[in-house]
Write a structure and sequence with these properties.
The protein is mainly beta and about 70 residues long. The protein is about 0% helix and about 30% strand.
Length: about 70
């Protein structure tokens, strides 16, 4: 699922940013997943291009937040 509220191009350097998103997993197949976040490469929209300053495991640019179960 894609989030759209975040606009990194509008962020100011050296200023904290907080973004609240609502995501839906309505079309996801039931199962266990890992929730991850990333800021995607403009034009490509598939691969994270900015490393986030959060203390989580990072896999291929994705910051892993934790497990999610869809029922």
């Amino acid at each position: 699922c894609g989030a759209t509220a975040s606009k990194p191009g509008e962020w100011k350097s050296d200023a904290p940013v907080s973004v609240r998103e609502t995501v839906s997993f309505a079309s996801a197949v039931a199962g266990d997943y890992t929730l991850a976040v990333g800021i995607l490469q403009p034009g490509d929209g598939e691969r994270p291009s900015i490393r986030l300053a959060i203390d989580t495991k990072n896999v291929n640019g994705w910051s892993l937040l934790g497990p999610v179960t869809v029922r």
